[in-house]
Structure formats: structure tokens, C-alpha cells
Fold these 3 entries.
Entry 1:
Amino acid sequence: MSEHLLFLTGKLAEKQLRGILEKMQPEFSYTVHQIGVKVAALMTTDMIQRRLKETFGANRIIIPGRCRGDVEALSKELDVQVERGPEELKDLPMYFGKEAHHYDLSRYNVKIFAEIVDAPRISIDEILQRAAYYRNNGADVIDIGCLPNTDFPHMEESIKALKQEGFTVSIDSLNDDDLLRGGKAGADYLLSLHEKTLWIADEVGAIPILIPEQHEDLSSLDRAIALMQGKNQPFIVDPILDPIHFGFTQSIVRYHEVRKKHPAIEIMMGVGNITELTHADTSGMNALLLGICSELNINQILATEVSRHACRAVKEADKARRIMLAAKEQGMLPKHIDSSLMAVHETSPFLNTKDEIRELAGMITDPSYRIQTSVEGVHIFNRDGLHTATDPFDLYPKLGVENDGGHAFYLGVELARAEIAWQLGKRYNQDQALTWGCAADSAEQTVDLHTFKPAGTTLQKK
């Protein structure tokens, strides 16, 4: 027997909900019930409990995604499973489709080494603060970067302090003395050794990261690998990723050659030569680089956040490694798994066409302004009419708020958000901040509906 679902909605969204369900041609049967509220998003679980007199034989009840209240308590009260649907009706097919699957992003198989590049020049307290920041953003190992011709008298004390706080630590230098000191102080990894400096690995317990003695010299890397394998000691190999136009493509080929020749060894990729040295959004770069890592089974990366444009690189790499693992395990493309790396654009930015917005505007009977976007631009409407523009300044003379500072301020903020969303191809939801994924400090930047809104700005929610 097929499942029967009950969809609860408001007056303004009822027609659209019915139309979407008809087009979906779902395998389940359903009932659409309007519970006497105009705007569906203003529905609460307490309101549903008071107003819903029957459940129409439903096995499940789907309520608006923005409905506030205790869903679990409502399920117990009605003796029917209640669940929030998507926040936007146009996302209903995705909610019930393949893309609605929830993927496990709690796991990853790529360790992130996050480098503190100027450790010799900052205090131990600052090193600990940066380490905590990196760990909070997903780093597994804190890499202490040494500087050429720069004394580092507090190296040992810094490593000891990090270890006491539970950090895994690597020391990063091409100076033999720095690496030896770091290893003896308790560092877990040494970046980087080559075949002529492998003797350092015999002096300490740290795991070495091996690089070619001369750039691009894979034969020297092979010899170093053979030496470590002969000693039955752990190691990681880094063939070195080069910047674009300075050997980038050939360096990717090197990684492929090393993996093909040594299918079981551990490999590291230093992604900073791309994220730091390319003026483009790092979220996409991290997605691509972690995709390469996934295909080549590269299980360590070295990330940096030196340039201001790369200030979210560790956070983005953390999200990318989880997405790539989920996609790999499911045998699927890395699409529709998580949107955190889509900071600027979205897959479905415009929920309604201009004609659909015009139809909705014709149903409005109150003076409250609603704002939506479509491919054509920004739309603002109430019972007195619909106005469309691509520049919010063109709308201001039509809104009648010249003598209402609070109302004008509110509409100015919302129209500015709508304009930005329209320009970039992002989704705009009235009364909610735009979401920027990993590019912002918080992926959840929604504004509480009870925050300041002047009179006459009630929202159109679905």
C-alpha cells in the first residue's frame, strides 16, 4: 500500500504547492490542507496542534520548512510522524528525490597540515592561538614553519606547548639543524627531507616527508623511498606542486607518476602554491585539488592562509575532503552533497519566474511589501502593485516611504541583498542574510523573524 502524505500550507502558497505536487507525479498519495494562515512560514507547531482537526489518514505530515516549534512533540500529540519540508516550495522535488539523500560528512581520509608560516617571529601564545584557530577549522596537524636565516630560539618551547595542548605537530624547514631540533623536541613530522638528509630521521622519532633532492628529480625521490622502505620506517612523499605557469600541469603529472609507481605509499600535496599564488576564489581551487587527491589517494595536504584572499583555505579544504570522500564512496559526482563550497553562485538561484511572481502579487490584499528575484531582476510588490528593476534606486520613488525612516531603512537593506543575489546568481529569501558557505565565518546566517521589522514589512513566506 502506498504511503499517504499530508501537506500543511498557508493560503498564499496553496495553489503553488498543489501545482508542484501535480508536476512531481509522486509515488505516494497526498492531501493538501490549508490551515487558515495566510503566510505558511508564520505557522507554528502550537498553531497546527490547535487548528488541525484531522490527519486525513496520513502516514506522514509535511509542514513548511520555516515552521517554528517542537516537531517531535507534535508528532507524539498527533500520533503521526511530522517533518519539516524544504524552506522553499520549489525545492520540494529535490527534497523527495535523489538529491535529498543525506550524506555522511563526518568522515574524511585526508589529513590537513596547516602551516604557521612565521612561527619564529611570533610568541608562543600567538602560536597556540593560531593552532587553535586552525584546529577549529579542520586542521589535523599544526605545521611550524621556520624562516630562512631567522633565529628561532623558542622552537622547542613552542613544540612542547603545542604537544601539551594535544596538538599533532610538524616542523617545516630546509635547514638540517631546525629539523633535528624540532624532531628532538617532540615534533611528529619533519618537512622536508631528501636522500642526503635522511640521516635526521634516524636521530628522531618523527615521520619524515620526503621530497626530491633537486626539483623534479623523481629518481632521487625513488632512492629515498627505497631507503626508508629498506629500514621499514614510515614516511610520506611530496613530489611538490608547482604554481600555474611555473610547472603546474607537469607537477600534477609527477604526482600521477609517483602514485602509479608506488601504489601503496603515503603522499602529501602542498596546495598553497595554487591557493596562495592564484587570484581566484580558493573554494573552487580546494574542491579541484582535493578531487585530484581523492583520485590519486593522496591522504595529506599542506595548507596555508597567508594571503588575505586565502583566509578560509583550511576550512574549505576540510569541507572539500569530506565531500570528495562521500562522492567517492557513493560512486557519484561531487554534486548535490553539500553547498558549502558554492560561495558565490547556487544551482537554483531563482525560485519563481516573473509571471509566477506577477500571479502571486495579484493575490496580495495587504500593504506589506514582499520582495523576490527572478532572472529579470528584483521584484517588490504589495496590494498596490508590482514593481521590477535591476537597480533598487529605481524602485525607491515608487515605494512611498520617504517619511518613514525605519521602513525605508528596512526596505533598503532587503533590496540591497536582493540586488546582490540577483547579480551573482544566489538565492534570495526576504528577511534572511545571504549565505556564503565557507567564505564566511558562519554558513548559517539567517536572521530571526522576531528581529526588528517596521510595520508594513510582513514577509511573503511559503
Note: The chain has three domains: 4-100, 111-330, 340-462.
Entry 2:
Amino acid sequence: MSARDKFHNIVKLALQKDGWRITHDPLLIRIENITDMYIDLGAERIIAAEREGQIIAVEVKSFIGTSTISEFHTAVGQFINYRYALEEIGSERVLYLAVPLNTYNDFLNKPFIKTIIQRSQINLIVYDVETEEIIRWQI
């Protein structure tokens, strides 16, 4: 199992522990005849029957490569493309980028990187690889 697959499964389990039901693995987005895009996970919140369910899409990133900034560039680009694609098809899903806790603490908390995240309106799910739990939701 690759690290990417391992992190994917960790986030999937963490979402389930947090009360989400995985609806798509992966979530396919088809834009006209241009291309198919695959967001790692689609999920819905299991909540009280009288409330409308929340639905999300989650792109999982491991940040285990040799260049964190390069992986960040790729993640930001994917996130923006996926968000626009979801809007294009009229999806009500809220898109999140799932990142490991150590990357969040060591890299994504740097002032310049935080500014990019805020200006790009990137929603984050911070997950703990060891406990397989979601530590933080950041909108």
C-alpha cells in the first residue's frame, strides 16, 4: 500500500469516526466532454432527521514528497479547479483539503502560507496520522 493510499484510508476512517458517511470513493466530476475529475472522497454528515444533511468533498494530501512548497502549489491548484468544477455542475458540496497535522503545524501555519490559504478560500481538515482522527476543521 502506498503512502498516498494509506493517508486516503486514514482520512476516510477519521471522517467516519467524526460522524460522516462516505458516499463516494472517489467522487467523479464530469465537465462537459472536456475531462473527468476525481476528488478523493465525497461524504455526508449523519445528523438529526429534522435537519438538512451537509455534504462535502475532500481532497486528501499527504505532503510526504521532497518539496513541501511544490506539493502545496499542486494542492492549491487542484483545490481551485475542483471548487470551480463543483460550482459548474451545481453541486452543493463544500470542498475541503485534508492535510496531516505535522504539515499543518510545520508548514501551513507560516504567515505567508496562511495568507494564501485565506485568500484562496481553502477549507482545511487537519488529521492526525497516528490516531486516525480529525483534529481541526478550518473554514
Note: The chain has one domain: 3-138.
Entry 3:
Amino acid sequence: MEDYNGTSKRSPEKEDPRSALDDLVREGARQMLQAAIENEVAEYLERYRHVTDDKGHRLAVRNGYLPAREILSGVGPLSIQQPRVDDRKLRKQKEGEPFTARILPRYLRRLPSIDNLIPALYLKGISTGDFPQALSAILGSSVKGLSATNIVRLKAMWEEDYRQWSQRDLSGKEYVYFWADGIYFNVRLDDERTCILVIMGADKEGNKELVAVSDGYRESTISWKETLLDLKRRGLHKGPRLSIADGGLGYWAALNEVFPESREQRCWVHKTANILDKLPKSMQSKAKAHIHNMYRAENKQSALAAYDHFVRVYKDKYPQAVACLEKDKDVLFTFYDFPAVQWIHIRTTNPIESTFATVRHRTKRTKGCGSRTATLTMVFKLAQEAQKTWKKIKGYNLIPLVLEKRIFIDGELQEAA
């Protein structure tokens, strides 16, 4: 292009909008973190503003900043400056607590979000030596401090965390619900038929928490029995009021043996998928709507009416699909005997499914498979990080009534006569 004088005029290079957006997000995250630590210091100084010496000088004051340091985050490295606090006089006179940075501890170099990324990459098959390159591709080329040696050290720390957690005392714990599932990964295990057994529970306050992570042979009865017996050995004397799981697990036989008082609820998501798999694609959309009418009905009578309708419509032409539904009839509608506000939580194993959605069901072997302990550790850390975002189940105020075995019909509490 030429201007009116005939001289060459270059068009400005177009900036990559994705790069600009990444920079904007990163700068926003940096500013929010910086503002948070500034506010933390301000609140501390305000708390002790009235504490002064004989001359009226405050014993805790600002004193510039510590040298800037890079903090690894999920959006890349962030350059942060921690305000410096001079509280030596305050500590000397024992007038209050010394300042301790809680938002940005002294030696923190990596925000917790990165602790979610490393286990996920490991379970995807990334080897230890490839971690620096993989993380650099995700978080940017300026990522530092995560060499292969540091990854090995980090994994060793997590393995110890898992060992202590898997031996923790469960005395006094009580769970209203269990969600159980077998998770397959690629493979980091000795045998492709081996999977990770995971149990999530809802306690008597309604908090969801990770209860068990162990390895098992295919999801066999003996593997689940070993896991449940270990919970009992460590003090969990009462089983959950209701367990939710897929129909194909050895979990049910083990549960009936170890915690026979626990009632059963088959996962409707798994059941729907299994039924549709036995129907031609042209019929699946309509059949799925019929299935939804069963477990989304307002009461058990309407649900059973939808069930009978499905059987009548499909039995003659698609007997296998109907047989798949019929074999679990007695344990598909159990949730109607529990509070209606909690049905959304107890009809499916979605709490586990959503946690491991990005890494589950991949059984292809990879080179350089890690140890079984390492794989269990990564699953544990991934779930532990996810647990920080888990919310209480709805209607948790009704849990004491469920634990007392009060009667609910179609989700409504029946008053004692």
C-alpha cells in the first residue's frame, strides 16, 4: 500500500485475538490476587491500629514490598509482590499475633489449580519426563520450577498423603448416601482388567466427600468386599441408608454382605444407555423420552405407569431392551422413598461421573506405565481437588430424618400416627 506521497506504507500486523484474550485473563487474575493480598495486610494492620508505643507510634506498620515472585496458576505465571509488614515491636511486646500471609504463604510457588492438572495429565498417559514440556504448552513457555525431578518429588509427597488418608480413622462417621463406581484409566496398572474403585459419600450434614479409592479386579465382588470391609475395620460400623451405582458391578453382592441394611438404587444414566444400546438408532430418541418419563415422574405410581407403557410398546419387537429394564425393576424406583428435594442427587452416579469425566474409561496401554500406587495417588489427588468444589446436597436438613429411618412416600415425609 502507498500513501499520497507514493511512499510505501505497511499495514500494522494483526494481533492474535486469542493471545490478547489470554493476556487479558492473566492480567485480570494477577490484579485480583494482588488486591486480595493487599486487603489481607490492610485488615491485619487495622486490627492492631490501636496498639501503640509510649510515643503513639503503631507497633505494626507497612514496610514496602518483598521482591516480586512468579506464581504458577491455571492461567499461566503471575508476577506478584507481597506487601512487607514490620511487626517486630508487636511480637516483642506480645500484644498480638504476628502477621502470617494466608492467601500467599511465604514459600508458595504454585496455586492449587495446578495440583488438579498434574494428576489429570498423568492419568492421560503423560510420563514424568514429558511433564515440563506438556505444562509449558498449557501454561506458557515461562513456566519454571516443574522439572522432572520436582514432579517426582511432588508425586512422592502425594503418595504419602494418600497412604495416610487411606488409613484414616472413620469412627463416628455416618453416611446417608454412597455413590460407587469403577473407573478405568489408560492404564498405569499391571492389567487392563484392573480398575480403580471409587466411593463418594454424603455425610449427616449433607457434605459430599471422598470415602474410598482402591484398586480392584474388573469391579469384582471380592474387590468391592475388600474395600467395604476396610471401611468397616477403620470404624465405619453403619452403612449408608442408600447406595447408588451401576447395575453391572460386583458392588451389590459385596454391599449386601458387608452393609446389608443399605438400600439399593440403580443409576438411571447407566440404565438408559444400556437400554438404548439394544435399540436401533432410529428408535433411540423416542425411547429415551419414554425412559425420562419413568424417573422424572412426580410420584412412583406415575413412574410405574410409564414403565408399563414402555414394556407394552417395545417388548414384542425389542425384547432385549425390555429385558434390560425389567431385570432391575425392584431397584430402579427406590429413590421415591427418600426426600423429593434430594432425588436429583440420588437417581444417578453423576457426582462420580462428572469428577472423572475427562480421564475415565480409557484402557489402552501406554509406554512407561507407572506403579499401581502412583495411579491410585493420582486418582485420589484429582478427586481431592474436585472435592473442594462439591456442594452440599439439597435438603440436607432432612438427612437426620432419613438416618432415623422415618418414612417418606413419593418424597414426602409421613407424619407418625
Note: The two ends are 91 Å apart (CA to CA).
